[in-house]
Design goal:
alpha/beta; Rossmann fold; Alpha-Beta Plaits; 2 domains; 6-stranded mixed beta sheet; binds adenosine-5'-triphosphate
Length: 311
């Protein structure tokens, strides 16, 4: 038995040409292992191939080449078992307006062949905070409630792996927090979580490991901590005790004077000790009132890795 929840080898997808659109190679040979029990981030710019990858995992898009193994089950050899091991919360709420939340969960459980006695409708409604809406028609639910119901539907068959495709795009803070609380709880209970998001601070906060894909290729896969450590760039922010000009700087440091009077200095921490900047500032006759450093964020790592490959 493998320690990976998902094992993807040489995964390719080419969408066939239609009408005027030429064929599109959306995935160009992805190798990716996702460890059991992790919260894994799948990131990439628009059109990178994330949805294609997720849809292949969900069994909604047929791959062109390669292998996909979900929870030890090969998707081609054991399609039923591999499908039963994964639950997908899609981006868009496509809900049948004539079903109630309880009804939707029941139908979904039926689709997955969950016997009536083993259905956890009440428990799931409780988790997603829709107990009091159990019998309300879907069309009367708010956008946030529909999103929560989508999460509930992904859970009816108690999958080992839960995929959330852009779960917080356009949702308010309250719903976002609720989703993250649920995700953490499910992960604490042992569920492996795969997440795509455009909000990099969210990935930074939530994910243990991250893969970035671009133009159908994986360009990096590492722990979030290591990824953040890759960027050697740091910023030192100095508040002078009165308005001052930016002192002249050597080549290894770039600086700027902010509109609020603070001075920011960006440098490579492996090459330049912060003390060098502090002395430079003091030597310019500036009295330092306050000083702090800013670490690199995932956003900068992401931009540095994807920017040079655009085109
Ligand atoms: N059904 C399809 N037919 C043809 N081309 C497609 C199809 N679905 C996606 N593509 C193309 O494949 C590429 C990858 O798309 P995909 O939706 O997987 O990217 P993505 O990373 O999920 O982007 P986004 O964040 O915008 O959803 C894009 O160039 C897209 O236009």
């Amino acid at each position: 038995m493998t320690d990976n929840a998902i094992e993807i080898k040489g995964l390719k997808k080419t969408y066939a040409a239609t009408g005027k659109s030429p064929a599109k190679e959306a995935l160009k040979g992805i190798d990716l292992n996702i460890p059991r029990g992790s919260i894994f981030g799948l990131l990439g710019p628009n059109g990178a191939g994330k949805s294609t990858l997720i849809n292949i995992l969900a069994g909604l898009v047929v791959k062109s080449a390669g292998s996909v193994n979900i929870w030890g089950f090969d998707q081609d050899r054991n399609p039923r078992q591999s499908r039963a091991a994964i639950g997908i919360m899609p981006q868009e709420p496509h809900l049948d307006p004539f079903f109630t939340p309880a009804g939707s969960l029941d139908v979904q459980a039926g689709l997955y062949g969950v016997p009536k006695a083993q259905r956890k409708t009440a428990e799931i409604l409780e988790l997603i905070g829709l107990t009091d809406k159990a019998d309300a028609y879907a069309r009367s639910l708010s956008g946030g409630m529909r999103r929560r119901l989508l999460l509930g539907k992904a859970l009816v068959h108690t999958p080992q792996v839960l995929v959330l495709d852009e779960p917080t795009a356009g949702v308010d803070i309250e719903l976002r927090n609720m989703l993250w609380r649920n995700v953490r709880k499910l992960n604490d209970d042992g569920m492996t979580i795969i997440l795509t998001t455009h909000y990099l601070e969210e990935a930074e906060e939530m994910c243990d490991e991250i893969a970035i894909i671009n133009h159908g290729e994986q360009i990096v896969r590492d722990s979030t901590t290591n990824l953040l450590g890759r960027l050697d760039s740091k910023t030192l922010v100095i508040t002078p005790d009165q308005a001052v000009e930016l002192p002249s700087l050597p080549n290894n440091i770039t600086g700027a004077r902010q509109t609020d009077g603070r001075l920011t200095f960006t440098y490579k921490s492996s090459e330049t000790p912060a003390e060098q900047i502090l002395s430079l500032v003091r030597d310019a006759g500036i009295t330092i009132k306050d000083v702090h450093t800013q670490e690199a964020h995932l956003e900068e790592v992401f931009l540095s890795l994807t920017a040079s490959r655009e085109g």
